[in-house]
Design goal:
By secondary structure, this protein is mostly helical. The chain is built from nine helices and no strands.
Length: 204
Amino acid sequence: MTRHLPEQARREQILKAARLCFIENGYHPTRMDDIARAADLSKGGVYFHFKSKADVFASLVEAEYAKSIGFLRRVMEAKTSIAEKMQFIGRHYLEYFEAAPEAPRFFIVMGEMALRDEALAARLLEMQRSFIDTVHQLLDEGARAGIVRDRVDTLVVAAMLKALLDGLEGLKALEYPMDVSQFLTTGIELVMRGMASTEGPGQD
């Protein structure tokens, strides 16, 4: 018999188990029975916290978004230079990939589901836009400070940075042999150098 846990802790236990089930088996083959077994709970125990498998999956997607956008907002508020903030974003995602090696595989599962579910696709697109818009704000700060050169489309660059992160996540999920740190550092350095003002901040 499983011990009593506060509701939030129990939900997290179920979500952790479900995440692994979805990664290992895919969304459609996974049943609520599988999630309950992986969480060491009865199926009724899972249904007490989540009304359906779709509800479980949506909660996992929202948790991913909350972590990502929460981190970006902290970066935005940091009292450091634009370049340092960009490097911090790179380090954060490097550490994320290393600490949670299954994360890129869940990214693939989310993408697969988005092709089948219009509501999920719309939510994932909204989440992508939130990430890109936040990085766009960061790059615009650099433009106003004279760090980013004139006529650089910072919205396009923000989208390219997101594509870089997503691309690395996809390669990692497919077990492409690479040094993630080197790939990430090189990619961000190329983007930052391509945007850099030749005059430097504060010059006419």
